[in-house]
Amino acid sequence: MDKNMQKFGLLRKVNTNELEMMLAWRNAPNVRENMYTRHEISLDEHLEWWARVQFRDDQQYFMYEFGGKPAGIVGFTDLDAINAVSSWAFYSAPDAPKGTGSRMEFLALDYAFNDMNLHKLSCEVLAFNAAVIKLHKKFDFKVEGILREHHLVDGEYVDIYKLGLLSKEWQAHRAVIYEKLLKLSKGQV
After folding, report:
1. By the 8 A CB rule, do 167 and 118 touch?
2. Are 88 and 108 in contact (CB under 8 A)?
3. Nearest CA to 79 among 126, 121, 35, 139?
4. Is the pLDDT of residue 188 over 70?
5. Using an 8 Å Cβ cutoff, are 11 and 107 in contact?
6. Secondary structure (H, E, C), the chain
7. How far does CA 79 lie from the centroid of its chain?
8. Cα 172 to chain center, whole Å?
9. What is the model's pLDDT at position 138?
10. Is residue 29 over pLDDT 70?
11. Comparing C-alpha atoms, which of 124, 120, 137, 144 is closest to residue 177?
12. CB-CB neighbours of 179 under 10 Å
């Protein structure tokens, strides 16, 4: 790994002793409010979910670590090896440092297109989560559609943005993002 990339952190396997911390982050109000599943998840429910997903071929979950400290979760789901496509999502720890989302996204895209050899990566974002839609667009994701009034949140139907990024788009845009993140890590921006 290039030594500058180390400044962005790393993605690694989730350790079983981190499952309760992962759950606490997932249940944080600012994370929960931007998810399809919005109720507070119990430890039993979380452990049952983990038991189901950790060995599946169509799902992969990673701990994002920054400065030697766990700082977020990255998940790839609906992995279709034949078509080389997957969906993804992420969330950060409530106390994660500024810039965590950008660093996680960079590492996740590199992993998706270089290690998983994906052709395309997709995601869905609730329309009111404008910050994440904006972040994905900075990474060159394209809005591929809007599912109008598709999900019920607190008694109101909300739109869902469907975004996608092709491997060739990431490869063309990667250097620009890399340089911006390097400048941020050096405090130049």
Report:
1. yes
2. yes
3. 121
4. no
5. yes
6. CCCCHHHHCEEEECCHHHHHHHHHHHHCHHHHCCCCCCCCCCHHHHHHHHHHHCCCCCCEEEEEEECCEEEEEEEEEEEECCCCEEEEEEEECCCCCCCHHHHHHHHHHHHHHHHCCCCEEEEEEECCCHHHHHHHHHCCCEEEEEEEEEEEECCEEEEEEEEEEEHHHHHHHHHHHHHHHHHHHCCCC
7. 14
8. 21
9. 96
10. yes
11. 137
12. 11
pTM above 0.90, yes or no: yes
Q: Six-digit token pair at 90?
A: 């992420």
What are the Cα distances from residue 183, in Å, to 102, 116, 177? 13, 27, 10
Copy the structure tokens of residue 168. 């060739």
